[in-house]
């Protein structure tokens, strides 16, 4: 329920305390909490950190915006650690989580049909730091970096070269490494997930894991084994010299920018859906990364209008048609990427259904 609902506004005007399930959970939890949010990557990082904690030999429960509702976790035996994925909606009423470690992974336009502007949305995300013992922040994201506060314990991650105590990327002998300061931890090529955005996710998880005192060996082994979640830069198959990737979970512009910029090869991009009031203008920066654009859904034409001067654009009326078009447009060495930059509900039951239709259509091509 939005805080802007008239009933809620009347309650606030009368001085009534308005709280949500996350604040109630935090007041009852008997184990430390790790709280994770961001416009993109939060489910991946939540799942990745969960695997790191388990591999380090600790009992952990995961929930919030992923899997089990937070309050339902209280019905289970108390673990050594709670890991919560939290959305901006949940954070609106989370007055004090008092987490052991909190992270904001990134901020980009999303839910602009709910928030008056990006600053309003960012403010909701920032509530995750209320009472946090340690903050983990993205040095590369100006809106996240602005959440830093002097006198607070803070850890930083970046896709640049890390300063001492930061987590980032370094080079040695022509190889790229995940590093903490000058200490190289593992080769980037050995990370199981695809794309530069997932290197950032891995670095954030390492920063949180170190703050929690997890085993470095366990964290590095997890990063090597963990291949990511379905519908997030998920490799479907190789066909006629092209790799096909399902990134249906990219429901906002920031997610699609991160996905596209994570590839070195040229891409045939399938995008479009319900933009939720988003500004698609930032997509103009990826024109030189694309060999073709195929748009679908309610706001597909808005995406095409941003990129039509820099890349050939076509319109498809269904996912099957989009995949068929992509198979004809992709040259050997190109990859085909479904990364919609939009929600799915104009055409599908959800991003999972959209991704499954893409996978089935692609596999149908391989058998044809």
Descriptive key words:
Protein-Tyrosine Phosphatase, Chain A, UDP-N-acetylmuramoyl-L-alanine:D-glutamate ligase, alpha/beta, 13 helices, 2 domains, six-stranded parallel beta sheet, 33% helix, 368 residues, six-stranded mixed beta sheet
Secondary structure tally, helices: 13
**Which regions are unreliable across 5 or more consecutive residues at pLDDT < 50?**
none
The gyration radius over C-alpha positions equals 21 Å
Helix content range of the residues, please? 25-40%
> CATH H-level name of the largest domain... which superfamily?
Mur-like, catalytic domain
Q: Mind telling me which CATH architecture of the largest domain this is? A: 3-Layer(aba) Sandwich
Structural class: alpha/beta
| Count of individual beta strands | 15
Strand order of the largest sheet: 2-3-1-4-5-6
* Total separate domains: 2
Shape, per Cα inertia axes: globular
Name of the top-level CATH class of the largest domain: Alpha Beta
Largest sheet: 6 strands, parallel
Strand content: 15-25%
Question: Distance N terminus to C terminus?
Answer: 48 Å
Task: Please write the string of helix (H) and strand (E) elements.
Answer: HHEHEHEHEHEHEEEEHHEEHEEHEHEH
Taking all residues together, what is the mean pLDDT?
Answer: 96
What name does the CATH topology of the largest domain carry? UDP-N-acetylmuramoyl-L-alanine:D-glutamate ligase
């Amino acid at each position: 329920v939005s805080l802007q609902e008239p009933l809620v506004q009347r309650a606030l005007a009368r001085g009534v305390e308005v709280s949500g399930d996350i604040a109630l959970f935090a007041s009852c939890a008997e184990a430390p909490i790790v709280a994770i949010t961001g416009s993109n990557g939060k489910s991946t990082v939540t799942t990745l950190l969960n695997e790191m904690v388990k591999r380090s030999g600790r009992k952990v429960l995961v929930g919030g915006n992923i899997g089990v509702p937070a309050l339902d976790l209280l019905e289970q035996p108390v673990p050594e650690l709670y890991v919560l994925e939290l959305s901006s909606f949940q954070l609106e009423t989370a007055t004090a989580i008092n987490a052991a470690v909190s992270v904001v992974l990134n901020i980009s336009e999303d839910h602009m049909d709910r928030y008056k502007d990006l600053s309003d949305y960012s403010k909701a995300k920032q509530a995750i730091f209320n009472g946090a013992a340690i903050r983990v922040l993205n040095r590369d994201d100006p809106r996240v970096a602005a959440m830093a506060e002097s006198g607070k314990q803070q850890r930083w991650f970046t896709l640049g070269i890390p300063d001492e105590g930061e987590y980032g990327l370094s080079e040695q002998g022509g190889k790229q490494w995940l590093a903490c300061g000058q200490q190289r931890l593992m080769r980037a090529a050995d990370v199981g997930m695809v794309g530069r955005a997932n290197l950032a996710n891995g670095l954030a998880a390492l920063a949180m894991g170190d703050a929690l005192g997890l085993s470095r060996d366990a964290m590095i082994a997890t990063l090597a084994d963990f291949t990511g979640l379905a519908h997030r830069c998920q490799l479907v198959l190789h066909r006629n010299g092209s790799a096909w990737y399902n990134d249906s979970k990219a429901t906002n512009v920031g997610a699609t920018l991160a996905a596209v910029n994570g590839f070195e090869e040229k891409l045939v991009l399938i995008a479009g859906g319900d933009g939720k009031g988003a500004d698609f203008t930032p997509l103009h920066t990826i024109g030189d990364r694309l060999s073709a654009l195929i748009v679908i859904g309610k706001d597909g034409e808005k995406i095409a209008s941003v990129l039509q001067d820099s890349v050939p654009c076509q319109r498809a009326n269904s996912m099957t048609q989009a995949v068929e078009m992509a198979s004809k447009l992709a040259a050997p060495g190109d990859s085909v990427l479904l990364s919609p930059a939009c929600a799915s509900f104009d055409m599908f039951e959800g991003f999972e259904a959209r991704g499954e239709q893409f996978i089935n259509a692609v596999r149908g091509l391989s058998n044809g």
